[in-house]
């Protein structure tokens, strides 16, 4: 509840983006636990718990940043509970590999959003999220795990590629609802995706920019698929 | 995987006790997440995640200690998977308050076991578990939460007391199975409970000592019930 940074008013949309990420980390934390039953052994279960614990640290960091910016963290998260819960509800992994692919894809999208925060938020917030980005990038171990499994059993590539496509498809359809309901957030994120050419904020143009953002996300997603030995 | 302490052979039973606690922390971590759906609001959900993250830190610490003692951490946890899973399976909380009572009771029993480790293990291990004990004792905030709820609605005291009794009853019946299967562990824990008068290890006398241990646990449990404003 320090108010040191509250004086510097965050650009509209930044509080939204921090709230979105905070709830995303919190719900991922709990959802990762659902995958515990799919883990092939105790060591894998322990590693899964480690990934979840990292999500919790990110949640705490975002919660503190929101409070420092003078926002009510729970109020900031509120608008994103329904779309994120819906995404998780529609993408429940049925196998251990599906849960690894979901973790990697989800962390990747979160990483893209963290970078947007880092570009547009105050220096303290940018500094704080930088740690989350670097930890998110440690997820490379997960990609290696999937790639190894696919190399050992190439029949897995087709179903897992399809699964990854569904993960992103469901994310985009939830993102469209969020973008329509939160135009300032959409503007901010679109700005991040297009190097600042959107600008005005809140208008119809931003929804078009959001399409460009989605194109960008899809492109990043293709790179992530490749890292896992899958195809779009 | 350091082997600095591997030279000092741990007393028989210590590896068992560390394995038991390690799996207990790991499974608690995942099981706490199941209670997320019961949380009354986002802030409570966040606090629950914080408790789970602490359990994960304890799990990591125990895992590292087992490796440092030259034990295979997963092998050490193995014998306790079934009884601990069975306990959780028989004690699934149906309300938020039931999950708080379960957390407090479970952490309390874990704390008793940590103290036994601290008494009998090598200095490095004793030092490492001391941190876990002090964090476990921070659970007092949970007791205050339950006590406040019971003061506001005294009708809750009866059903929650019954619930707490069931938690311990189910724990004792699993503990009996474990004690019969792992006599060296039983001897060690009984020794802790009786101030060292059991001693010999592995015989029938230790099973009698285990009964005294259970009496001790039940006594500690009564004190914990009182802290929550409940009765035995």
From TrEMBL, chains A, B:
Species whose genome carries this gene: Nocardiopsis suaedae
Name of protein: Ferritin-like fold-containing protein
Gene3D superfamilies noted in UniProt: 1.20.1260.10
CDD domains: Ferritin_like
Domain annotation Ferritin-like: ranges: 12-191
Residue ranges crossing the lipid bilayer per the database entry: none
């Amino acid at each position: 509840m320090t108010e040191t940074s509250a004086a510097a008013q965050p650009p509209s949309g930044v509080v939204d983006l921090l709230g979105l990420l905070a709830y995303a980390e919190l719900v991922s934390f709990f959802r990762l636990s659902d995958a515990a039953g799919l883990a092939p052994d105790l060591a894998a279960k322990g590693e899964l718990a480690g990934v979840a614990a990292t999500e919790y640290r990110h949640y705490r960091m975002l919660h503190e940043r929101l409070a420092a910016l003078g926002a009510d963290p729970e109020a900031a998260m509120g608008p994103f509970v329904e779309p994120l819960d819906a995404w998780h509800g529609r993408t429940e992994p049925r196998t251990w590999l599906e849960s690894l692919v979901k973790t990697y894809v989800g962390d990747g999208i979160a990483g893209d959003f963290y970078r947007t925060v880092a570009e547009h938020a105050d220096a303290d917030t940018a500094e704080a999220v930088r740690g989350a980005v670097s930890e998110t990038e440690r997820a490379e171990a997960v990609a290696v795990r999937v790639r190894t499994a696919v190399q050992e059993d190439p029949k897995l590539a087709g179903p897992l590629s399809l699964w990854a496509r569904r993960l992103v498809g469901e994310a985009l359809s939830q993102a469209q609802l969020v973008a329509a309901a939160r135009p300032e957030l959409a503007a901010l994120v679109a700005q991040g995706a297009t190097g600042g050419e959107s600008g005005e904020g809140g208008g119809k143009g931003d929804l078009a920019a959001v399409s460009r953002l989605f194109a960008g996300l899809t492109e990043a997603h293709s790179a992530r698929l490749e890292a896992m030995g899958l195809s779009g």
